[in-house]
């Protein structure tokens, strides 16, 4: 078994090499959706470009040495594969000088340079006298790996261009930010995993000291994580901003399986069983319980697969694969290792004569018999807690239901965070550079309108685009400007759109191909760009959504001529849809998860009571969680929107394990009250250990530099604590109350009418005296 496990480690290591980082549109939008088709296929692949921006600041732009350095950078960057064009002050001045003098070179005279800059350089390349921007435009269809390579080459070219030392050179832009964020994500994931391991070592030492080899569960779960990495590579599941948080979650969940098997086999060994017998009993009693808990956890997570956002789907896939891998590692490797270690320890002690056999051949029974140690503090606390909750069910459940109802009402008031810039580390240099660029340029956010027409040279088409652009700029304060083929044609024709198709086609022939490709594709597609400045910062996602809706209404009011259609798209539109899908779908995912968990339990047990009680317990936690988020002033993000399903997945496991042990004890002849008290003491310690270990694992998320992950960590830690609390405070009274009710109903159906009360009275009599008649009865 160990050899097979090690072989799978090698196979997993090979598969992990195929894991890729993704942060593009495909992580937010389904490739089959119309939204993706419009943005990625129509806009990005045909018209879209992304720009690496080299910002030059802290000096005069008309310095000949600076322009020579710009020119060298321009020429080096233009030759890079995937670069569509390079726009710079040096390039504009060189072209203007060629048009005037026939010489394609930069003038060396400062006055001549200043004249050309004043007359020909547009404001977007030179926002002011001390800032100059160089745009290295990349085709929108290039992959993330190509972007990273181009960025690296541009940075190298900047160092080789020999800019004067007095100038500050910053390489920024969206591609630079995305590459930097991907690198930060990978570094953050490594830190989170390391911190999770450290925290779990601490908690295992603190609360799992009643067994030997207390750190064994951590080693087993890390083995499961290795298998998960391998499966992730083979199944081509990418690493995204959300899915990287799955691994600390998996460590917290997976270690629970290892702890349950470890705790049970040690319990069996303490009873005096041989290692072989202990393994058989552990698999017989704990295996099905943990497997059922795994299935229920998976059903809770499965609701996340219904999300329309690919990165949430990938998060769900990782969780589903990971819990299966951790379960298999615990079942086959964990139990096998403990069996082998116990045998080795027994052989060693027998060889050196350091212990005597008592009862059966078992090292634990030699040092600790059932009568040599009484219950510890945790055992007594769990017993008293269970006893108290069972004896006061109506008081406890009334309070719990009232708090749950209040929490569900308050949850509707929890705000939704839609500013995506708040999700990443605010001190990330690439983000700070991007914000600095936005401050200099005033922002470059756009709404892109793709116009489909039968004839791109139809004067009516260009006139509609011109009139619609003017209307939006004049009447919508957030629309700062517009660019289209109509504006280019007007600039070439003294501010007027020609009245005939022939004149327009003549102007098309005079245009450089680069300019034509920017706004026109073939004979039936044109592009209209509406500049909305720094809309993300000034309006936020909700404001952009309102603006997009207003523009759609305007397109209905100012309808295009017959034969034309207009579609609004762009990066901002994509994010509007994504945030809406994430936040509006969270309630559906939560209730779907509840339904799946209930249905799964009902199918497994074919017992309404066993299906209902865990779901009722976790529903309480869902309500409490929403109320706490409201009281703590927290916000929903794309990750915290998944919390309902996570609560169900994590918390249902604890309830199922407690329920399995309850019915096991009850099958031995215990009353419901006795069975619940016994279950709370015997399996409670293992649940507390696994719960605290899970909680500490989630604590690692709080340390993430990514705010979206750290806030997720905070509320997840709270929810795991609430799930543990509900397992020991809500589950026992609900289960005992309903089970007793069911037993009474069964008894009434069997026992004739009128005699049931007499029977109960005789049973109660045996509790107070030794009435022979009652005892015999």
Automatic annotation (TrEMBL):
Record has Protein transport as a keyword: no
InterPro entries: MMPL_dom (IPR004869), Mycobact_MmpL (IPR050545), SSD (IPR000731)
Main location: membrane
Subcellular location: Cell membrane
Domain SSD: 223-340, 611-737
Keyword vocabulary terms for this entry: Cell membrane, Membrane, Transmembrane, Transmembrane helix
The keyword tRNA processing is assigned to this record: no
Chain ranges passing through the membrane: 185-208, 215-235, 241-259, 289-312, 318-341, 390-410, 588-605, 612-633, 639-657, 686-703, 709-738
Gene3D superfamilies listed in its UniProt record: Multidrug efflux transporter AcrB transmembrane domain (1.20.1640.10)
Coiled coil, from the record: none
Domain of life: Archaea
Membrane topology category: Multi-pass membrane protein
Family matches, as PANTHER family: MEMBRANE PROTEIN MJ1562-RELATED, MEMBRANE PROTEIN YDFJ
The protein's name: RND family transporter
Taxonomic source organism: Methanococcoides cohabitans
